[in-house]
Amino acid sequence: AQSVTQLGSHVSVSEGALVLLRCNYSSSVPPYLFWYVQYPNQGLQLLLKYTSAATLVKGINDFEAEFKKSETSFHLTKPSAHMSDAAEYFCAVSLDTGRRALTFGSGTRLQVQP
Amino acid sequence: DVKVTQSSRYLVKRTGEKVFLECVQDMDHENMFWYRQDPGLGLRLIYFSYDVKMKEKGDIPEGYSVSREKKERFSLILESASTNQTSMYLCASSFETAIWGYTFGSGTRLTVV
Protein backbone atom coordinates (compact mmCIF):
# COMPACT_ATOMS: atom_id res chain seq x y z
CA ALA A 1 0.00 0.00 0.00
CA GLN A 2 1.14 3.51 -0.68
CA SER A 3 0.87 6.29 1.84
CA VAL A 4 1.96 9.83 2.36
CA THR A 5 2.39 11.68 5.66
CA GLN A 6 2.42 15.43 6.12
CA LEU A 7 3.97 16.52 9.40
CA GLY A 8 2.20 19.48 10.92
CA SER A 9 -1.43 20.27 10.16
CA HIS A 10 -0.77 24.00 10.70
CA VAL A 11 2.36 26.01 10.00
CA SER A 12 2.70 29.72 10.73
CA VAL A 13 5.50 31.91 9.36
CA SER A 14 6.19 35.62 9.16
CA GLU A 15 6.08 37.40 5.84
CA GLY A 16 9.53 37.14 4.26
CA ALA A 17 10.53 34.05 6.25
CA LEU A 18 11.42 30.64 4.89
CA VAL A 19 8.53 28.26 4.27
CA LEU A 20 9.11 24.55 4.93
CA LEU A 21 6.27 22.04 4.60
CA ARG A 22 7.14 18.43 5.26
CA CYS A 23 6.04 15.33 3.34
CA ASN A 24 7.19 11.74 3.77
CA TYR A 25 6.00 8.78 1.74
CA SER A 26 6.18 5.03 1.95
CA SER A 27 6.84 3.09 -1.20
CA SER A 28 8.66 -0.03 -2.32
CA VAL A 29 9.06 1.32 -5.86
CA PRO A 30 10.16 4.73 -7.15
CA PRO A 31 7.23 7.07 -6.63
CA TYR A 32 5.85 10.03 -8.52
CA LEU A 33 5.26 12.86 -6.06
CA PHE A 34 3.17 16.00 -6.24
CA TRP A 35 2.41 19.13 -4.29
CA TYR A 36 -0.97 20.81 -4.70
CA VAL A 37 -2.23 24.08 -3.23
CA GLN A 38 -5.81 24.95 -2.32
CA TYR A 39 -6.82 28.56 -1.82
CA PRO A 40 -10.00 29.28 0.17
CA ASN A 41 -13.19 28.15 -1.57
CA GLN A 42 -11.31 26.78 -4.57
CA GLY A 43 -10.24 23.44 -5.96
CA LEU A 44 -6.65 22.21 -5.90
CA GLN A 45 -3.94 23.50 -8.23
CA LEU A 46 -0.72 21.70 -9.13
CA LEU A 47 2.38 23.42 -7.67
CA LEU A 48 5.05 20.99 -8.83
CA LYS A 49 5.78 17.32 -9.44
CA TYR A 50 8.65 14.84 -9.29
CA THR A 51 8.69 12.12 -11.93
CA SER A 52 12.21 10.62 -11.64
CA ALA A 53 14.13 13.30 -13.49
CA ALA A 54 15.98 16.00 -11.47
CA THR A 55 15.66 15.54 -7.71
CA LEU A 56 15.22 19.29 -7.14
CA VAL A 57 11.97 20.36 -8.69
CA LYS A 58 10.91 23.96 -9.23
CA GLY A 59 7.28 24.97 -9.35
CA ILE A 60 5.10 28.04 -9.61
CA ASN A 61 5.38 31.08 -7.32
CA ASP A 62 9.03 30.28 -6.36
CA PHE A 63 8.16 27.04 -4.61
CA GLU A 64 10.52 24.10 -4.92
CA ALA A 65 10.81 20.60 -3.51
CA GLU A 66 13.64 18.11 -3.22
CA PHE A 67 13.19 14.37 -3.59
CA LYS A 68 15.40 12.53 -1.08
CA LYS A 69 15.20 8.79 -1.59
CA SER A 70 17.26 7.94 1.49
CA GLU A 71 14.87 9.90 3.70
CA THR A 72 11.71 9.04 1.69
CA SER A 73 10.90 12.74 1.78
CA PHE A 74 9.63 15.40 -0.60
CA HIS A 75 9.57 18.61 1.46
CA LEU A 76 8.22 21.84 -0.04
CA THR A 77 10.14 25.09 0.47
CA LYS A 78 9.97 28.73 -0.49
CA PRO A 79 12.74 31.18 0.44
CA SER A 80 10.48 34.12 1.32
CA ALA A 81 6.82 33.83 2.30
CA HIS A 82 4.24 36.21 0.89
CA MET A 83 0.82 36.95 2.33
CA SER A 84 -0.75 35.44 -0.78
CA ASP A 85 0.85 32.06 0.04
CA ALA A 86 -1.66 31.50 2.84
CA ALA A 87 -3.50 28.36 1.76
CA GLU A 88 -3.70 24.63 2.37
CA TYR A 89 -1.02 22.46 0.82
CA PHE A 90 -1.34 18.79 -0.05
CA CYS A 91 1.35 16.27 -0.86
CA ALA A 92 0.29 13.36 -3.09
CA VAL A 93 1.91 10.17 -4.38
CA SER A 94 1.45 7.83 -7.31
CA LEU A 95 3.57 4.70 -7.16
CA ASP A 96 4.12 3.94 -10.83
CA THR A 97 3.11 4.95 -14.29
CA GLY A 98 0.36 2.34 -14.42
CA ARG A 99 -1.40 3.70 -11.39
CA ARG A 100 -3.98 6.27 -12.33
CA ALA A 101 -5.01 7.44 -8.88
CA LEU A 102 -3.21 9.73 -6.45
CA THR A 103 -3.13 9.24 -2.69
CA PHE A 104 -3.15 12.54 -0.80
CA GLY A 105 -1.77 13.51 2.56
CA SER A 106 -3.93 15.11 5.23
CA GLY A 107 -2.83 18.63 4.30
CA THR A 108 -0.93 21.49 5.95
CA ARG A 109 -2.55 24.87 6.41
CA LEU A 110 0.00 27.68 5.99
CA GLN A 111 -0.60 30.98 7.77
CA VAL A 112 1.53 33.99 6.92
CA GLN A 113 1.77 36.70 9.57
CA PRO A 114 2.43 40.32 8.58
CA ASP B 1 -8.93 27.75 -20.49
CA VAL B 2 -9.38 24.06 -19.68
CA LYS B 3 -11.96 23.28 -17.08
CA VAL B 4 -13.53 20.79 -14.75
CA THR B 5 -16.99 22.02 -13.83
CA GLN B 6 -19.04 20.80 -10.90
CA SER B 7 -22.72 21.55 -11.29
CA SER B 8 -23.40 22.83 -7.77
CA ARG B 9 -21.25 24.84 -5.39
CA TYR B 10 -23.49 24.31 -2.37
CA LEU B 11 -26.14 21.67 -1.83
CA VAL B 12 -28.43 20.90 1.11
CA LYS B 13 -30.27 17.57 1.12
CA ARG B 14 -32.36 15.61 3.59
CA THR B 15 -31.41 12.27 5.12
CA GLY B 16 -32.54 9.40 2.91
CA GLU B 17 -32.66 11.41 -0.31
CA LYS B 18 -30.94 10.18 -3.45
CA VAL B 19 -28.33 12.78 -4.41
CA PHE B 20 -26.58 13.33 -7.73
CA LEU B 21 -23.34 15.30 -8.04
CA GLU B 22 -22.34 16.09 -11.58
CA CYS B 23 -18.91 16.79 -13.05
CA VAL B 24 -18.00 17.75 -16.61
CA GLN B 25 -14.52 18.17 -18.16
CA ASP B 26 -13.64 19.70 -21.51
CA MET B 27 -10.08 18.34 -21.89
CA ASP B 28 -10.82 14.91 -23.42
CA HIS B 29 -9.24 13.30 -20.35
CA GLU B 30 -9.47 9.52 -19.99
CA ASN B 31 -9.60 9.47 -16.20
CA MET B 32 -12.08 11.10 -13.85
CA PHE B 33 -12.14 10.95 -10.06
CA TRP B 34 -14.35 11.73 -7.09
CA TYR B 35 -12.75 12.61 -3.76
CA ARG B 36 -14.25 13.81 -0.53
CA GLN B 37 -12.35 16.31 1.58
CA ASP B 38 -12.75 16.48 5.36
CA PRO B 39 -10.72 18.54 7.86
CA GLY B 40 -7.72 16.62 9.15
CA LEU B 41 -8.27 13.74 6.72
CA GLY B 42 -7.18 15.35 3.46
CA LEU B 43 -8.67 13.98 0.26
CA ARG B 44 -9.96 10.44 0.16
CA LEU B 45 -10.72 8.68 -3.11
CA ILE B 46 -14.31 7.45 -3.48
CA TYR B 47 -14.38 6.14 -7.07
CA PHE B 48 -12.62 6.74 -10.32
CA SER B 49 -13.25 5.95 -13.96
CA TYR B 50 -10.64 5.30 -16.66
CA ASP B 51 -13.04 4.99 -19.59
CA VAL B 52 -16.70 5.29 -20.47
CA LYS B 53 -18.79 2.81 -18.43
CA MET B 54 -15.65 1.69 -16.56
CA LYS B 55 -15.14 2.37 -12.84
CA GLU B 56 -12.99 1.32 -9.95
CA LYS B 57 -13.57 1.62 -6.23
CA GLY B 58 -11.35 3.92 -4.27
CA ASP B 59 -10.65 3.86 -0.56
CA ILE B 60 -14.16 4.78 0.71
CA PRO B 61 -16.81 3.62 -1.82
CA GLU B 62 -19.44 2.55 0.72
CA GLY B 63 -22.70 4.46 0.33
CA TYR B 64 -21.74 5.83 -3.08
CA SER B 65 -22.04 4.80 -6.71
CA VAL B 66 -20.92 6.44 -9.95
CA SER B 67 -21.95 6.69 -13.58
CA ARG B 68 -19.94 7.54 -16.68
CA GLU B 69 -22.06 7.30 -19.82
CA LYS B 70 -20.05 9.89 -21.78
CA LYS B 71 -16.32 10.60 -21.68
CA GLU B 72 -16.74 14.17 -20.46
CA ARG B 73 -19.23 13.52 -17.64
CA PHE B 74 -18.80 11.66 -14.35
CA SER B 75 -21.60 11.53 -11.79
CA LEU B 76 -21.42 10.64 -8.12
CA ILE B 77 -24.57 9.20 -6.60
CA LEU B 78 -25.43 9.00 -2.93
CA GLU B 79 -28.05 6.26 -2.90
CA SER B 80 -29.55 7.29 0.47
CA ALA B 81 -27.88 10.35 1.90
CA SER B 82 -26.79 10.26 5.53
CA THR B 83 -25.46 12.98 7.81
CA ASN B 84 -21.97 11.41 7.81
CA GLN B 85 -21.80 12.16 4.09
CA THR B 86 -21.80 15.89 4.81
CA SER B 87 -18.53 16.95 3.22
CA MET B 88 -16.76 18.79 0.41
CA TYR B 89 -16.74 16.72 -2.77
CA LEU B 90 -14.05 17.32 -5.37
CA CYS B 91 -14.04 16.06 -8.92
CA ALA B 92 -10.81 15.78 -10.93
CA SER B 93 -9.68 14.54 -14.31
CA SER B 94 -6.38 13.52 -15.90
CA PHE B 95 -4.80 12.01 -18.97
CA GLU B 96 -3.85 8.33 -19.04
CA THR B 97 -1.77 8.20 -15.88
CA ALA B 98 -1.34 10.22 -12.70
CA ILE B 99 2.13 11.30 -13.83
CA TRP B 100 0.42 14.17 -15.66
CA GLY B 101 -1.29 15.39 -12.51
CA TYR B 102 -4.93 16.24 -12.05
CA THR B 103 -7.18 19.15 -12.96
CA PHE B 104 -9.68 19.80 -10.18
CA GLY B 105 -13.13 21.32 -10.10
CA SER B 106 -14.02 23.95 -7.50
CA GLY B 107 -15.89 21.49 -5.31
CA THR B 108 -19.43 20.90 -4.07
CA ARG B 109 -20.11 21.45 -0.39
CA LEU B 110 -22.88 19.01 0.51
CA THR B 111 -24.80 19.27 3.76
CA VAL B 112 -27.15 16.44 4.71
CA VAL B 113 -29.70 17.39 7.38
How would you characterize the overall build of this protein?
The complex is a heterodimer of chains A (114) and B (113). With 114 residues, chain A is mainly β. Chain A has no helices and 11 strands. Chain A has strands at 3-7, 10-14, 19-26, 32-38, 44-50, 56-58, 64-68, 73-78, 87-94, 103-104, 108-113. In chain A, the strands form 2 sheets. In chain A, strands 2, 4, 5, 9, 10 and 11 form a 6-stranded mixed sheet that branches. In chain A, strands 1-3-8-7-6 form a 5-stranded antiparallel sheet, with no helix packed on it. In chain A, a hairpin with a 5-residue loop joins β6 and β7. Chain A is globular and about 45 Å long. Chain B is mainly beta. Chain B has strands spanning 4-6, 10-13, 19-25, 31-38, 42-51, 54-57, 64-70, 73-78, 87-94, 103-104, 108-112. In chain B, strands 2, 4, 5, 6, 9, 10 and 11 form a 7-stranded mixed sheet that branches. Chain B has a 4-stranded antiparallel sheet with strand order 1-3-8-7, with no helix packed on it. In chain B, β9 (87-94) and β10 (103-104) form a beta hairpin. The model of chain B has no long low-confidence stretch (mean pLDDT 93). The A-B interface holds A 6, 9, 32, 34, 36, 41-46, 49, 51, 90, 94, 97-107 and B 4, 31, 33, 35, 40-45, 48, 50, 56, 58, 90, 92, 94, 96-99, 101-102, 104-107.
